[in-house]
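Memo to structure team: turn this sequence into structure tokens by end of day. - J.P.
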Amino acid sequence: VRMALDQGGDATKWVNQLRDVADDSPELRSLAGLVQADSGDPDVAAKGLESVLLETDSDDEKIRILEKLASLYSDKLNKPTRAITSYQKILKLQPSRADVQQQLADLFQSRGSVEALVETLKNWLQSLAEGPDKVPVMAQLAHAYGELGRPEDARATLDGAYELNRNMLSVNEPLAKLLQAAGELERASELQQWVVNQLRRDREKARLPSAATVAGDMLVAQQDFKKAQRFYRMALQADRGFAPAILGLGRSYAGSNDLTRAMAELEKVAGMSEAQASAADRTAANIELGRAWLASGKGSHARTALNKALQIDPGNKAAVELLNRT
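Reply from structure team:
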């Protein structure tokens, strides 16, 4: 039987002959399982491997079989629950297997089983020694907490990760957002600027416009308009038509009382099509234009801009309030 398996021959007949002449035994059942495992049919192969697993005493051999089973169940057979069971059995034998921990986490993530994902990541962290190896896992755990609507847990996890490694994009970027939401703008802004600079070093041009615009918006909120303009220009160097950056640039000019430049930028966004800018950005641009025209003492121009905002977003409170002042 073993020679037939090694040489790619048909071992089924030899197993059948063995069954005719030999009593049932663990070795015979294992051999029969190996023959099934050699099948080109994934379902038959999986059943064979399960049979071999039952007759195996060696932990190393169990792990080898479980790895094959997990692969069959997750890929060819599309049976994620059984793949999960196989991975969990491996981890009982080898808790420190980072590759298996990640495969298990990915399976829970793909199924939307976020609670199970959190428990898996927490168990993974417990198997790791204190140090920087924990940081990527903590970043995943924080993201999962965010999906569950638990920002406090996400923040605590990211703060812990930051103390272990202060130069991880997967930590600093979400931490900046959480700090911004908590009103801690100064620290959020510092982290977001680090994120932008890291993206530039990594030549992540596709992600740069959004990240640089967020940095600019944080600086505008702190009334650091000159520095904000530098980040908006970074965004526009990567994507010169990026509406949120143009809008932010216009707001920063308005904040520094440079109304001529402010209106020039805001007009660009206000005049964009639906394909070029979101309704929210076009509405905001027209409202900011109305505000700028009012500051310039030109009520009719302000009304035109504000009415355009209301055409896009009927009933917009900010537009209505400004319109009542014209």
